[in-house]
User: What shape does this take?
Amino acid sequence: MKSLTLALKDVKLLVRDKSALFWVLVFPLMIAILFGSIFGGSNGASKIDVVLIDQDNSKQSQELVKGLKDSTALNVLAPAQSDALSAAKESVRKGNLSAYILIPKGFGHEVQTFQYAKGPAIQLGIDPSHQAEAGMLQGIATGAASKLMGDAMQMNPQDLAENLSNVQNSTLDPARKKDLMQLMHYASDLQTKRDTDPQASTASFEFEGPQVEQKPISASGSKPASAFEITFPQAIIWGLLGVISSFVVSLVKEREQGTLVRLQSTMSMGEILAGKALACLIACAGVMALLLLIGHFAFNVRLTSPLLLAMAILCGSLCVVGIMMLLSVLGRTEQAVSGSSWGVMITMAMFGGGMIPIFMMPGWMQSASSFSPLKWTVLSIEGAIWRGFTFQEMLVPCAILVAIGAVCFGAGVKVLRSRG
Amino acid sequence: MIEVSNLKKSYGSLVAVDGVSLTINKGEMFGLLGPNGAGKSTTISIMAGLLKPDSGTVKISGDDPISAAAKKRIGLAPQSLAIYERLTAEENLMFFGKLSGLGGPQLSERTTWALELAGLADRRKDIVGTFSGGMKRRLNLVCALVHAPEVVFLDEPTVGVDPQSRNFLFDTVEKLRDEGLTIIYTTHYMEEAERLCDRVAIMDQGKILAQGTVQELIGQFGAESTLIAEFERMPDSFVFAGAEVTGSILTLKSKEPFADMAKLAGAGVAMKSLKMESPNLETVFLNLTGRSLRD
Assistant: This one.
């Protein structure tokens, strides 16, 4: 109970320290947003990767494919040969692909007979968290399909007559057949008039366009869905360093300002250390949770597995508590502790992926990064948000974090006790 | 109430406390007087259970000071300002109150009582960092009292305090003494010890040199008063045992200063001014150690 009182006091002091709060929360957030924006928010690519599956393979569907390929915003990929739709869905689910576009069988016939509203819709499979990409793809697909209809209205007289005949012989309900016949006659008249009177082309009519149906596919795969899913775990490292730097001098400060003496008059040293550890744990978990929540709600960072994420946060926090305890005994004055701990922390951050994402590091550095506890913190968080770790897979980084924390905490307490 | 027996504490080759023995009665205000480095703070740190002695024992109402029972009975106001500058006055008091086991309405009542005692009731919600040095000192004092201890250790509570705040602190300590609190007060200002303490122990180099009431100490070790006279005329054949004359100033050490004053006047010494310096704890310390308290 006394330790909890002490911990809550320390957290309150941290919250009231504006400069500490900047390094713990604002600076990491700035890093996440800045680098997330620089990398484009979506895998760093300027084009949206889509797989186009043409199940119709008609003249009209091929024209639609050509229209989509012509879009400068899309990087249209060829589908896998076998079971293209399942493969595309799985790719979107895993985050390997932004979306797929399916042109269903019968699309060409419906275009010929102007039955867009009733016919099978163009299907757009996309992760619903990618709101911006979904809107853009919907617009591009609708535009390309509408162009097909517009082209149909500007056919030569023979094609137009053929289309009129197609409509007349179709199985459409009589009312719709009548509307379409009128529309095609109108288009035919308009084309004749336009040849003699250019101003006639300003005439307009209304007709229901092609349907583009969005099919939500929730991503659960092993690739980040956006650059923010890389930069927010990175930002957490900086937040944790901010917490360590605040708490690492806490004991020395208590000693220097005399409050440690007063605390010792009511608490045992064990209770005081427990209080400090608990305060650090609360601050770490709070910072990680807050940054991830901001990432989730403002930047669509997925919180795929809340349970595993809670486990990652807890283990990461325990590790930081241990590191804090060891660093806090590196010196006997605030300046000595602060200076030496920053040296250690910057090295840990450099190798732990705080400055450069680990997958972008050269090979030797990636190997060396295993010695930085921060690397395991990032890995465990990424495991829970986009790497799709199972519980067993999560056990490895979490066990390493807890072990590092325990060893560091034990060493710190031992040094402290040896000083009396 | 407090029994201290043959305490010893060394830091390497430095002997900080060397065989200190004391008995402090319930409701007594006991002063530990000595220059800086005399071992006063180390002694009260051991008495308050913050330090383990190398040898010797301390008992507070029969309990070891490191026991939970004794800790609840002890209040400590360290020499440094042991308060949190980013918390409010009220938050500081509530924090230390909670650590001492207070809670609920009792915590609120004691906090309000302490704020009023320190004259900080109207600043209870203010951050301590905005307080003057004197206000911080007062808060530092009442943080030791919030849990209603039976014994309070005040370690040089007036260091760095302006005269106005010093008087406020004196009044507060006197009030506490009158309420029956047992107070152990360390200082190197003999005026404070003389004004406040029922009994005083004079410490130097880790040892208790003497202890007793102020009057007992002065009577035992203060020796003589000093008469200093500036004279206009002096008879040519003037002779007075123990008197020293330098120019027009006559200095006389005397055990019976008023009788000697009359004798000087009777001997024909025409005095322009006369000053009598009575012995005090400073004199006692000087006589015991050959040094001034402020050396």
